[in-house]
Design brief:
Elements lengths: L1 E3 L4 E3 L19 H5 L7 H29 L7 H6 L1
Antiparallel strand pairs: 1-2
Length: about 80
């Protein structure tokens, strides 16, 4: 903790005595497993990540067409016609 007086600032001794804390950023696998190209994560992680990947691919294909249609002056009624082509 930091306490501020009028003339000086004192740092608590607790800050220097803290133990390092391990931070686990993922539970998908160990560092060695994640480096292995043949590693397959558990299904409880693989299925949501696969769905996220498919949605990201879909959005990345549709978004440019919507942006170009908007810039070309097409209305909301004509934008679905672009996706039929």
């Amino acid at each position: 903790m930091i306490s501020a007086n009028k003339n000086n600032i004192e740092h608590s001794s607790l800050e220097s005595e803290r133990e390092p804390v391990e931070i686990h950023t993922n539970n998908i696998g160990t560092a060695e497993q994640l480096k292995d190209p043949n590693y397959f994560p558990p299904l409880r992680y693989a299925i949501p990540l696969g769905i996220q990947h498919v949605l990201a691919m879909f959005v990345s294909n549709v978004t440019p067409a919507i942006i170009i249609a908007g810039a070309a002056g097409f209305g909301f009624v004509q934008i679905p016609l672009i996706f039929r082509l």
